[in-house]
Request: fold
Amino acid sequence: MFARILTTTTFVLLTACGADDPSFSLLPTSNEFQSTSSFNNKIDILWVVDNSGSMNPYQVNVANNFTSFIQDFQTKGYDFRIAVTTTDAWRANFYGIEANKAAFQDASGSAILDPSTPNLEDAFIDNIMVGASGFGDERAFQSFKTALESSLNSSYDFPRSDAFFAVIIVSDEDDFSHNTADYAFRNYNYGLHTISEYTEFLDNLTNSTDIVKNYNVSAIAALNQACVDDPDAHPDTIIGQRYMELVEATDGIQGSICDNNFSDNLNQIQTKISELSTRFYLNRTPVDGTIQVFINGGAVPEDPVNGWQYDEVSNSVTFFGSYIPAEGDSITVNYDPTDLLL
Reply:
């Protein structure tokens, strides 16, 4: 969720998802974030699915475990939207006859799924089962950029300007995005696009800064040689080293495509999205040890597993575990600001 700037005659308040009418007090300062009925924790999610010849069982694995991904968003009442593209979308840039490959998948009849979508799980399965007849030159990065820039998807307003944006890649190979239509043949010295080209693209797309990041990228891929050598893995499986680099650069989750069941991977991905999208940015720097956090009036423990943690770099509070806020929760952060000690 984006940092919103609210001004008063006294100072400026920066929040990740704040009230329309926040209240303030001094010594200690109280940053009160009221999630009212007009507040939505907006999350837009783009799945980038490898549709090459080896991918059918992995698409099935995602489809069968979608509940592990979506149920917490539903329980917390988040305003989510979901779209799907494939690792073939990049081809729309080079082959006019394949321009439709940039369009979001809509086998369900809807290219954008949200909480009001009838039979949401079935609709997601229809869209995520993109088949296995795609090209073997996987370019997940170039494909999500192509899809997001395509005029075929412009009417969807996706991602929304005030939503946290999550990209989830599912592939058993690696990304070989580059400037020509030629097949890179898994050659990492082929003039591939740098990872920073895509973090810069996502920064600009989401109005992110070096401090406030309004997106992340996660991947379910081959994470090591043991996965590549797995007897059940496809012979073309290779380590997704570029996926892992982009995931690490954007605070995402790395899941193994060799796992028999993607339930844990998907649950970890959705948890990380919830943590990042509900992060609260403080308006002033707190004195060490003075922060107190409350949800609906109840104290939240300082705990990086099940509670809250302060990040000095971004001057923000992140929630974890059962304390990740739900729609309608009232969040209060009290602290002594350092500038009042001067």
Observations:
- Confidence is low (pLDDT under 50) at residues 1-27, 34-39.
- The chain is about 25% helix and 20% strand.
- Residues 19 and 86 are 38 Å apart (CA to CA).
